[in-house]
Every structure is written in C-alpha cells, then in structure tokens.
Recover the amino acids of this structure.
C-alpha cells in the first residue's frame, strides 16, 4: 500500500493576518499621556549674576522629613492645614500695596503675592506620595486665590477656564480669555521654589 503524501498547510495568508492584527491593535490601543507637575524653569542666568535677594518674611518655608512630617515655618503641621496656612501667607498684604489682598496685613509676614515665595525642601527618603500631596496643597493655595480674583473681576473661575483652554474645549474668544488668564497669573504669580533634597538625618 502506497504512503499518502502529508498535506501541506497553506501559510500564504499568515503574513496578511499578522499585518491586519497589527493594524487592529495599533488603531484600538490608547496610549496614555503622563502628566507631570507643571513648573516653569527660571531663565538661564550667567554665572557671575547674584541670585535675587528676598526678605526673610517673604519666604514661607516647608520642610518634609524622612518620616513624612511637615515642618512649616519651624512648627510641626498636619498636611490638612498646609493649604490654609499658605493662603494666609500669600494673601497677607503686609506692605499695603496689594489692593485685592484680604489677609491679616501682618507686617511680619509677606508683603504681597508678587513678593511671596514658598520654599519646599524634602528629605531624600520622603515618600513620593507625601511629596505629591504637599505640592498639590501648595498649588491649590495659589489656585484658590486665582479663582477668587477671576470670579471677582470676570465672573468665572480661573481653574475652569484654564483647563478648558488647555484641553481645547473653550467656547468663546480664546485670545481675550488668555489675556485675562495672564492678568490673574500676574496678580498671583506661582513662586514655588524647590531646594535640593536633604540626606536623612541632616
């Protein structure tokens, strides 16, 4: 009895199938865009230029240690209280030049939002979660004041219009909105300084 020939598998269309699957996955897969912490770097300065001088009362110092504890202006503080303390510092209006500030006008605290700087220093062993939480609270303090002023001047919240402009969802005159956004940012500039992290125990 003669041996039957083994039937061959037709592999001619395998390349086409693989190509179609590749196209399918490329089209249907969504690539997530990671969002970082938005920070504007200072302009490049020549080496021989001295850094600007700030009065000590215009600097709000936030230290985070290796145990994720906050030391704010040399006092221990809970994270939940940080935002309100930062708002009080930024909105103080100590020198009387800020016409829109509603703070205590304490001469021992910041002069006005344009001169106020928040300085953050972390330990190298600070948890990333705590680091982000501190950043969120401080940015939220700036956004609170910006929302308040944009509501007073223009009748809308800074954060909502800024988000709509960033995402391309703004319905209206974008140039006019951007001018108003810039005006609010000039009134309450985000001056958040990050010092180099400390080594543990120092």
């Amino acid at each position: 009895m003669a041996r039957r020939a083994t039937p061959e598998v037709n592999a001619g269309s395998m390349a086409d199938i693989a190509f179609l699957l590749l196209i399918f996955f490329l089209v249907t897969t969504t690539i997530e865009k990671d969002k970082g912490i938005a920070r504007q770097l200072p302009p490049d300065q020549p080496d021989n230029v001295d850094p600007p001088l700030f009065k000590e009362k215009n600097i709000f110092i936030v230290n985070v240690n290796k145990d994720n504890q906050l030391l704010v202006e040399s006092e221990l503080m809970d994270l939940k209280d940080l935002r309100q303390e930062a708002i009080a510092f930024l909105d103080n209006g100590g020198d009387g030049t800020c016409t829109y500030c509603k703070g205590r006008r304490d001469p021992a605290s910041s002069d006005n939002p344009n001169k106020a700087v928040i300085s953050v220093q972390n330990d190298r062993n600070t948890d990333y979660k705590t680091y982000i939480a501190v950043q969120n609270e401080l940015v939220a303090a700036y956004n609170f004041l910006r929302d308040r002023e944009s509501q007073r001047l223009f009748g809308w919240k800074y954060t909502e219009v800024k988000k709509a402009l960033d995402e391309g969802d703004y319905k209206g005159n974008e140039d006019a909105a951007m001018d108003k956004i810039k005006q609010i940012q000039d009134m309450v500039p985000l001056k958040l300084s990050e010092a180099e992290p400390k080594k543990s125990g120092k």
